[in-house]
Amino acid sequence: MKPSSITTAAAAAAAAAAGLAFAHGVLAAAPTAGDLSILSMNVAGLPAILNSNDVPGDKTTNAQTIGAAFSRYGFDIIHVQEDFNYHAAIYAADTTHPYRTATSGGVPFGSGLNTLSNLPWLDFTRVKWDRCSDASSSDCLTPKGFTFMRVALSGGLTGGDNSAAVYVDVYNMHTDAGTEADDLVARQSNINQVAAYIAAWSAGNAVLVYGDSNSRYSRAGDTAIRGLLASGMSDAWVELERGGAVSAVETLCGNPSTTDYCETVDKVFYRSSPLATLTPAAFAYVGGRFLQADGNILSDHNPVQVNFTWAAGSALRQSNFWGGPHGTYWLDGVGLTLADGTSFSHGGTGGTAATLALGAAEYWVGAQLCQGQKSGETRNFYIRATTSAGRTLAAGTATEDCATFAAPAGWHIAGYVGQGGDEVDQLAFVYAPR
């Protein structure tokens, strides 16, 4: 359904991430489909004096070998866990991934979670677990948890056409280990915490959640991973290697594994959305690609690779974001009223509201946003909407840092998504077919 009116209020608007750049001149069309390869690897980076991880050899040398393999095999998004005291060696040896998270530190300060990527992201966040257990091991020694980032599969942060972008929300996690009663309770809490965050911050978005879950479907006490499946997530291993059926029969893997049928604790969950479809194409344990020169293993975990294909939505698409990563995900305000009377509004209530009622055959087809600084944060200060009839509606104060957006041919602006609190910090436009 198309909007029947557009409302703006003169003040700051809220939506996307810092680091966005509008490409002037000739705009490159953003792809609407492609391939995505991901890797999850627990890199056994605890200090050797604390834990050998049953891995022979020098840990710094092993970390260098891991980083070199990251470069050699060209995975698009790599999540690592236990990336503690040998982090610098991994990053120094990987020479191909331009986007990397900054380490949060070694033991006992860091979470051990990091990401190396060929694709840019916005809104990177680290979240500590609400609960941990030392029943089996020292899980409370470090601030383990999960990370969140919104990765641009197409368009987005890379310049080009601001009007087209495809995002996926990507989570890296490392849950509590062990099988004692307190460990199981902590791990269930960990996974439920991720699920709650996804519900709050990734509503309506495609999602990838992967890392060291320390969970097995064959363990009766590990029920939270089944809860993820019940919530609408899918497990790439279950789908591709087990025909979609979850089994309670234990099938342990060797290291490196010679079969992909066995189950490890390192898991890859995914979910499509109306904005983007994710389809797993291949699953593999790739420990054979991560070996020392003498053939010994580099980690006590099998690295997991999954190849996906992705496609922009057929019923809904979106632009990139403009503004700053502040406020709650979801001009002091922006609003839409649909033809059936349903109204949507976000941001604050300050400023003077301006409303444009659309004609029966009139659509919202273009927009301009201008961002600036307020109280040390990037926010949108200006919005201008353009309709198919050439009419415009504007509010706020234009700055020199602006971006223009145009619905793809045959589509119209049907809504928006972003972040806002008292004002609109970040904003992106959602398109629907006409």
From TrEMBL:
Pfam families found in the cross-reference section: Exo_endo_phos2, Jacalin
First and last residue of the signal peptide: 1-28
Residue ranges of domain Inositol polyphosphate-related phosphatase in the record: 70-239
InterPro entries, per database record: Endo/exonu/phosph_ase_sf, IPPc, Jacalin-like_lectin_dom, Jacalin-like_lectin_dom_sf, Sph/SMPD2-like
GO biological process, one term: phosphatidylinositol dephosphorylation
A single MF term (Gene Ontology): phosphatase activity
Keywords, sorted A to Z: Endonuclease, Hydrolase, Nuclease, Signal
Presence of the UniProt keyword Nuclease in the record: yes
Gene Ontology cellular component list: cytoplasm
Domain Jacalin-type lectin: 341-429
PANTHER family according to UniProt: SPHINGOMYELINASE DDB_G0288017, SPHINGOMYELINASE FAMILY MEMBER
Annotated protein name in UniProt: Endonuclease/exonuclease/phosphatase
Species the sequence originates in: Bombardia bombarda
